[in-house]
Amino acid sequence: LETDDDFRFAVMGMIGVHEILKRLDTHSGIMIKMQEEMKAMQEQMAKMQEEINGLRTAMGELRETVMANTEEIKSLKADVSSLKRQESETQSLLGSLTEAVFQDKALRRLESIMSSAGESVVDIRYNAAIDDKEFDLLIIGSRTVYAVEVKVRHRRQDVDYLLSKLDLAEKEFKGKKVIGVLAGIRMTRAVKSYARGLGMLVI
């Protein structure tokens, strides 16, 4: 081996070839493992893509559902608004009808009172305005003027409001006695007592 260079180089070449083959086997194993890992990653990526596509489909369906619900909500809001408007109109109509009923009741009662006192009715004014104040009913007699306030439910502040308007009626109808009248359905004893204490009539 020491004296034969060709033999020595041949041995060294064989050793080198074996080493290279050994390393190639090692690298081949690594490459196979890497290929397997790449394949597994590709499968995971494909699965993730499927999940993403599924999420996109679900999001599209959800968006369509939300849009449909939005339209339904708009329709419901319009229906509610219409119902509120109808309710307001109904309440207004009922208020007008109630006022008309109690105006008529107050008129008949006061005509009877005036007739018993030997007084005649000169004029009847509905929703009459004096300056910037409105009276539900003014019954003008030869000697007396009845200023009628009509409400379904009278409260103490309603009595005070009518009282504040009587001065205007007294200025408008000088020489005549002006009497405030409360006409309504519900009125507490305290309110009735308070109004009568101020010289008003309660019907």
What does this structure look like?
This protein has a five-stranded mixed β-sheet, with helices on both faces. It is rod-shaped. It has 203 residues and is an alpha/beta fold. The model has no long low-confidence stretch (mean pLDDT 84).
Can you summarize this structure?
With 203 residues, the protein is α/β, with parallel strands linked by helices.
Order of neighbouring strands in the sheet with most strands: 1-2-3-4-5
Rg, Cα atoms, Å:
50 Å
Largest sheet: 5 strands, mixed
Derived structural class: alpha/beta
Mean pLDDT: 84
What separation lies between the terminal Cα atoms? 143 Å
Order of helices and strands: HEEEHEHE
Shape: rod-shaped
pLDDT under 50 segments (min length 5)?
Answer: none
The helix content, as a percent range, equals 55-70%
Count of distinct strands: 5
- In percent, how much strand structure appears in the residues? 15-25%
Total count of helical runs of at least 4 residues: 3
Topology:
Elements: H1 5-116, E1 121-130, E2 133-141, E3 144-153, H2 156-172, E4 177-186, H3 189-197, E5 201-202
Parallel strand pairs: 3-4, 4-5
Antiparallel strand pairs: 1-2, 2-3
Describe the structure using short key phrases.
single chain, 203 residues, alpha/beta, five-stranded mixed beta sheet
